[in-house]
């Protein structure tokens, strides 16, 4: 158990809908990262938050957004869902988000999203 | 190129050693990681190596790093059926991780 929790574990929805994925980082970690794992693209970095502020952005679609709250949990919002958004979404957390060994990222169990 | 490269499949007999290879791209990457993903599960951190090290050993796991060739390997000694999983190599470019596509290790009893 990495200490990172994600809910829900599974999500089935329809095209055009909007969903929210939730992540709680390990106790004491300030940085949260979101990754998408799909069969064709592999593991892709989406976005990083550090202590409530956006720190880095990867291949995140405009239909997707995220935020990190004062209690450090994070939510990833996916809207206008398409079939191709079906994937496993991982959250990871690390200590400081600034480099060094504190950057070791610990992953949650993931949320499996199926868009029908 | 931009990608972290790994071979897709490896099959070994139980008790043998497994060696999973990875080629990364950014010579300024500070840390390199190995993660394990079992079927239906998340990513489990196995080990990492700092870029100024050549080797790191942790029980049955040995990581070798060749910075000149940007080559990373993971050796699993005495491979067991419970080691069957997908193994991902990742490099840290700034703070996000860049992953390879993963090597599926099958252990034959």
Helix-strand blueprint:
The complex is a heterodimer of chains A (116) and B (109).
Chain A lengths: L4 E3 L2 E4 L5 E6 L6 E8 L3 E9 L2 E5 L6 E5 L5 E5 L8 E8 L11 E2 L3 E5 L1
Parallel strand pairs in A: 2-11
Antiparallel strand pairs in A: 1-3, 3-8, 4-5, 4-9, 5-6, 7-8, 9-10, 9-11
Chain B lengths: L4 E2 L2 E5 L4 E6 L7 E7 L5 E8 L4 E4 L2 E6 L4 E6 L8 E8 L4 E3 L3 E6 L1
Parallel strand pairs in B: 2-11
Antiparallel strand pairs in B: 1-3, 3-8, 4-5, 4-9, 6-7, 7-8, 9-10, 9-11
Look at the helices and sheets of chain B and give the structural class.
Answer: mainly beta
Q: Report the end-to-end length of chain A measured between terminal Cα atoms.
A: 31 Å
Q: Write down the secondary-structure element order of chain A.
A: EEEEEEEEEEE
User: Total strand count of chain A, please?
Assistant: 11
Write down the secondary-structure element order of chain B. Answer: EEEEEEEEEEE
The quaternary state of the protein chains shown equals heterodimer
Question: Biggest interface and its residues per chain?
Answer: A-B, 27 and 23 residues
**Residue-averaged pLDDT of chain B, rounded?**
92
Shape of chain B: globular
Average pLDDT of chain A, rounded to a whole number, is 92
Please provide the count of β strands of chain B: 11
Poorly predicted sequence stretches spanning 5 or more consecutive residues of chain B? none
Shape of chain A: globular
What is the helix fraction of residues of chain A, given as a range? under 10%
**SS element count, helices of chain A:** 0
Main β-sheet of chain A, in a few words?
Answer: 7 strands, mixed
Tally of alpha and pi helices of chain B: 0
Strand percent estimate of chain B = over 45%
Report the end-to-end length of chain B measured between terminal Cα atoms: 38 Å
The main sheet of chain B comes to: 6 strands, mixed
């Amino acid at each position: 158990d990495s200490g990172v929790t994600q809910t829900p574990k599974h999500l089935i929805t329809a095209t055009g809908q909007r969903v929210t994925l939730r992540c709680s980082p390990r106790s004491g970690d300030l940085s949260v990262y979101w990754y998408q794992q799909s069969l064709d693209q592999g593991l892709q970095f989406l976005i990083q938050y550090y202590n409530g502020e956006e720190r880095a952005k990867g291949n995140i679609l405009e239909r997707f957004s995220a935020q990190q709250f004062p209690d450090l949990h994070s939510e990833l919002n996916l809207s206008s869902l398409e079939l191709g958004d079906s994937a496993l979404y991982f959250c990871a957390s690390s200590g400081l988000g600034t480099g060094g060994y504190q950057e070791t990222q610990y992953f949650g169990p993931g949320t499996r999203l199926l868009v029908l | 190129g931009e990608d972290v490269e790994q071979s897709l499949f490896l099959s070994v007999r139980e008790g043998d050693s497994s060696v999973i290879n990875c080629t990364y791209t950014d010579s300024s990457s500070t840390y390199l990681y190995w993660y394990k993903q079992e079927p239906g599960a998340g990513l489990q951190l196995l080990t990492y190596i700092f870029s100024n090290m050549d080797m790191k050993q942790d029980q049955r796991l040995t990581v070798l790093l060749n910075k000149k060739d940007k080559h990373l390997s993971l050796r699993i000694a005495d491979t067991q059926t419970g080691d069957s999983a997908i193994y991902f190599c990742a490099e840290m470019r700034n703070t996000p991780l860049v992953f390879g596509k993963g090597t599926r290790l099958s252990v034959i009893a």
